[in-house]
Amino acid sequence: MSYEIQRLSEAEQQQLQRVYDDLKQLAQSSVPGVASAARAALAQVATALSGEGLAYELYSKDWK
């Protein structure tokens, strides 16, 4: 079975990079909950930027 490779547009890449940069700053927060949440989100955005995320719709009948 073969699936189409999805690519981000240049604008989407730039948006994600801005989000990544903002989250990186928030990850340095002195508020533990903020720093923790920012680090978790940072990992997800880094995955999206690297293109290594899974095509979740392949694994869930409920994903739309």
List keywords for this structure.
64 residues; mainly alpha; 2 helices; 0% strand
Main sheet summary: none
Structural class from helices and strands?
Answer: mainly alpha
Give Rg in angstroms. 15 Å
**Which outline best applies?**
elongated
> What is the N-to-C succession of helices and strands?
HH
Considering DSSP H and I runs of 4 or more, what fraction of the residues is helical? 55-70%
Number of domains: 1
Q: What is the number of E strands?
A: 0
Helical run tally? 2
Q: Can you tell me about this structure?
A:
There is one protein chain. The protein is mainly alpha-helical. It has one domain (10-58). It has helices at residues 10-26, 32-50. Helix 1 packs antiparallel against helix 2. The protein is elongated and about 45 Å long.
